[in-house]
Amino acid sequence: MTAWIYTKYVDFMKGLFIDFGEWIKLSWQDFVDEFKLNFIEGDRWEWLVEGFGNTLLITLLAGLIGIALGVIIAIVRSTYDKMGPDLKKRGGIGYGLLKFFNSICNIYLTVIRGTPVVVQLLIMYFIIFASSTNDIMVAVIAFGINSGAYVAEIFRSGIMSVDKGQFEAGRSLGLNYIQTMIYIVVPQMFKIVLPTLCNEFIVLLKETSVAGYVGTVDLTKAGDLIRGRTFSAFMPLIAVALIYLVVVMIFTALVRKLERRLRNSDH
Amino acid sequence: MTTNNDVLIKVDGLQKSFGSIEVLKGIDAEIKKGDVIVVIGASGSGKSTFLRCLNLLEEPTGGQIYFEGTEITDPKVNINVHRQKMGMVFQQFNLFPHMTILKNMTIGPMKLLKKSKEEAEKTAIELLERVGLADRKDAYPSQLSGGQKQRVAIVRALAMNPEVILFDEPTSALDPEMVGEVLEVMKSLAKEGMTMVVVTHEMGFAREVASKVVFIDEGVIKEENTPEEFFANPKCDRLKDFLSKVL
After folding, report:
1. Taken in order B10, A165, B102, B146, is the CA torsion positive or negative?
2. Nearest Cβ partner of B98 from A91, A191, A267?
3. Do B226 and B211 form a contact (C-beta atoms < 8 A)?
4. Which residues of B touch A175 (CB under 8 A)?
5. pTM for the model
6. Which of A68, A88, A218, B110 could make an S-S bridge to A55, C-beta 3.0–4.6 Å?
7. How close does chain A come to B184, measured CA to CA in Å?
8. Alpha helix segments (H runs only) across A36-134
9. Do B92 and A165 touch (CB under 8 A)?
10. Contacting residues of B for A86, CB less than 8 Å apart
11. What ipTM goes with this model?
């Protein structure tokens, strides 16, 4: 009885190892075939490269638009908060203008933060720029305007967290409001908001993955196109995910380095 | 009232309220060239507010301030031009942390007095030598001690070549052993004839350097006199009480 169990056991284990070895061999072959099918055949890897390029281009340009819009809006809004009462007392056109721009900024923030980015993108493409066929430029503008709203709030909280004494020291030297902002407050603000700003940039990078909605071949769309051709989902989608991951990791490392350098001025 | 050419700052019925709280209830003062006015008073008496009103860091809610004969409380006046001639030194130093010491000192002269970089730096280094900090010109403020920061803050104000310097409790945030070095710099400025308005708790400084000591209480000037009279024969009861507590 014991002998019988033993032989059965040995047979079972032999079978297991042979099957496992076979399985590995077959899987590796599968993997190589899949890889060839998805990336090599028909030079499909070129789609990923093109898509990746577009993703970077859209993110970079949209990020720049976002920062430019963000600085302007943050300065208008914090100026209104800080100087509004004084200007009102002084009268004249200054207060009226400031109030006007401040309300425009508020409407912009409410609308952009209150609607999904995909809807904004579709509106841009099919309504506002209906006559344009340059889908990448439309995506850049849509994502830039979207990002600006979030960046503006990041900058505004940064401006507000710069010590009030810094502003006073600048004004007491005789610098006017704008000079004090440019030379004293905004440089310190950038340092405060840098981590949050980078986070926003990473969010933006990943958000551009919906650009495919308007036919832009970005990284995500490229992976999806390959999937549609090869009817094999694993390879292209995991590859796309890995590329995003690596870019985000590299970017995070760069930011950490930059933060360390900026810290040199406050030991 | 005759306008004297020697009068640098004239304050008429100065009032300041924060919301419903009335901090200054009508202050009159005259500051002549070369005066060293020391303002003392309990905390919350309005002495710092008074000082900050002089260069309109706080906008007065009533009364007038004249600087070199111009009414700077007039909304049409460009206050930035006048602030260039009114230096200010803060309790918390307020050096610009993202700039080196040299940059802290040259930004005003370069942006406002349109001095060249070389010229501004030359003046800055001369001033730093005066307070013994020339070797720290490339350091950042965070690398200096409190006393060093405040000395830099004083020469930063001096770099604009001001007519008057306002000191807002310049030694209150310092460790005790650093108070002396800052007071020394202030004393030497006073000896050179710099016009100064100083809000402080340093009674020794007031006694030694002030040309006039002013006691502010409950938003008004309760007493003002030469330091000798002020400390030896205080007249109002509030001042007697105050001096008995701080001396």
Report:
1. positive
2. A191
3. yes
4. 80, 108, 111-112
5. 0.78
6. A218
7. 23
8. 45-90, 93-114, 117-123
9. yes
10. 59
11. 0.90
